[in-house]
Amino acid sequence: MKKLLIPFFIIWIISFSACQKELEKINRNPNEPNTVQPDYLLSNGIKSNVDTYWGQDATMDGALLYVQYWSKIQYTDADRYIPASTSIQTVWSNFYAQGIQDFTTLAQLGDSLHNPNYKAIAIIMRSWIFQQLTDLYGDIPYRQAASIEQYLTPVYDSQRVVYNGLLAELKNANTLFTNNADVQGDVLLRGDPLRWKQFANALRLRIALRIADRDFAAAKAVFDDVAASGNILLQKDSLVKLNYLASPNQNPVGRNRETRNDYRISKSIVDKLKALGDPRLSIYATVPKDTNVIIGVTNGLPNDSAARLGFSKTSDAGAVFTATTAPAILFSYAEQQFILAEAAQRGLISGNAATLYNQAITASFAQYGIPVAEAATYVTKPGVAYDGGNYKKYIGEQKWLALFGQGLEAFAEWRRLDYPQLKPALTGALNGKMPQRFTYPSSEQALNGANYKAAVARQGSDLLTTRVWFDVN
């Protein structure tokens, strides 16, 4: 009897498989392509991830409040360090599902299509996203990420491992570019291999400073290698930016302002700009309708106190950030020169730190159309004129001013340099402390619990106040 059952079982398996294949054939959409087109994947990957980087969950209700660029005049929980669980989940999910996964697929398409430029761009964009993730959370899934078929529950790598891995990937990406491979769908740098190489090298220098306090020799090796390869860096006053269009491809901040009016510019940055007589004040902030004076709002007010200030009596961020077509900046020449100024001061490169610092401020002014002559006067002012003996204060404060709007990068640099010295939110929920990271989403605790617990045991409690590896107190 058993001998008869065995062949029957085999026949049943074959029949079931055949039926399944037939069902798959019947249910296949003839109008849906089986192969992803690289140009569409690239365009969507850039747009969706820059939206996350510039959008509400990571930036408007997170980093922009933490570094006191913005504040809130309504629904003030986020400004009091009480993030919404949906925001925490969205940042993580979007960067991994719409970022790491999509650009990994694009890199694979670059191989299959024999177009190394797609692969190189995909690696650079994926590295940029990983950098955002580890800056925000600390230890993250990295080496096993984007391989869900193989690693359903990826392990968390230490921040040191992530940064070193990204440095290697970015260096390798620059060796892949060729002038004989056309790229379509590049809405960021128009498929220009040279500009992508410049961006990759700028990211390498950014990451090198992240690790410099922990591993100075490794950081110096990066600066030496970039110099040895020809210093292919951003050219004067250039920007790596996504130019937004009209709806539905508008700036996320502009989209937010179509239906909401609960954000204001922070009193902290208004006070600093006023104290320095900084001409960027009138660009960064609006003049309220009912006054003739720019007025910032203190971070972390309770809802009732904030509401009494009045929408028409307090300043919103300027149109250069809130307009529908306002660009999202990923990297600026000004930031690059601040990096080089600090590197020169610390002996990572040769050069005059004060000159590079002045170039960085001048570039920030130029970014907003402020004449060079005004920058030349500004850099000589007390409180601005460079003092190498206190470089963290001078570079930290001016970099903070220059990065206005780039909340995630400013949040990382504020933690690394410890300047400007900001006061915690007035009624913050962290017992007089300020956020030092984002917490992991609850989905990781539920679905990747063992690896989540291992990361927490290594890094420290999963709290907003836990410092990440690069943040040396």
Automatic annotation (TrEMBL):
Keywords: Lipoprotein. Gene3D superfamilies: 1.25.40.390. The keyword NAD does not apply. It comes from the Bacteria. Pfam families: SusD-like_2. The keyword Calcium does not apply. This is SusD/RagB family nutrient-binding outer membrane lipoprotein. It comes from Chitinophaga solisilvae.
